[in-house]
Amino acid sequence: MLRSSMQAAVTMGQLQQKLDLIGNNLANMETPGYKTRNSEFASLLYQQIDNIEDEGENPNRLTPDGLRMGSGAKLAHTDINLSQGSIKETGRALDVALQDEKHLFQVEVTVNGQAETRYTRDGSFAFSPVNDGEVMLVTSNGNPVLGEDGPIVMDDTFDEMTIRKDGSIFLTQNGEQNEVGRLAIVNAERPRLLEAAGQNVFRIPQEGIEDITVDEIVAAVAPENINTKQGALETSNVDMSKQMTDMLTMQRAYQFNSRSIAMGDQMMGLVNQLR
């Protein structure tokens, strides 16, 4: 009875993590470029108890011999679903949608005074003043968007900005167009290795990839293979019906394990009352 209560308590903790994940997905339904996080359960360590001395006595048995005493369940892994979200026209010049589901923008994030490269699908960009007469292209969170030569900085005296299909950025001033940079787009070669880092960005894990190079996880995309669309944003790929169904399933499982603890407590109370 004590073992069953421990199993249920451990499983409830993992179910709560799954519910938190579902809640995060639902909360980001309207976040541009957000990608659904999915997770799967697996069994923890279990003890196999053989209670049949002669296996020949059950020649037609289909299930495994003996008893299996488990320790509960755990979240085995969390995956990022990079499937393409729908493209929504905005008409805003600084909105850019990626039309290949594995392509990612590169952004620069400063952590503890050190600049790190992160990756995102959110193309809702803005301008941030950096010097007199200059602006820098940044994300909605204020992080610099990276081009082929680093952060993209330009004069703020232009009349119009155009981002072409291949990610090249042109400024029009006095009827004349000049290229000022190109968006640095990468392809997620092994998206399951990317780690969510908050603020709708991904990063390369710091641990567990000693034998894997960065280029094996994300690789630069040649300009001719880039496919962007200016004046549009990719919506999130969260499937609300699936998330609600998963949430109800997890809640039922949570209730079941909670009831298991209550029943175990009642049974131990009855045992203690025996004379």
UniProtKB/TrEMBL annotation:
One example of a Gene Ontology biological process annotation: bacterial-type flagellum-dependent swarming motility
GO cellular component term, pick one: bacterial-type flagellum basal body
Start and end residues of each Flagellar basal-body/hook protein C-terminal domain: 229-274
Subcellular location(s) per record: Bacterial flagellum basal body
Main location: other
Domain Flagellar hook protein FlgE/F/G-like D1 as annotated: residue spans: 105-169
Keyword terms: Bacterial flagellum, Cell projection, Cilium, Flagellum
Domain annotation Flagellar basal body rod protein N-terminal: ranges: 11-35
Classification via SUPFAM superfamilies: Flagellar hook protein flgE
NCBIfam families, alphabetized: FlgEFG_subfam (TIGR03506)
Family note: Belongs to the flagella basal body rod proteins family.
Protein name from the UniProt record: Flagellar hook-basal body protein
Upper classification of the organism: Bacteria, Bacillati, Bacillota, Bacilli, Bacillales
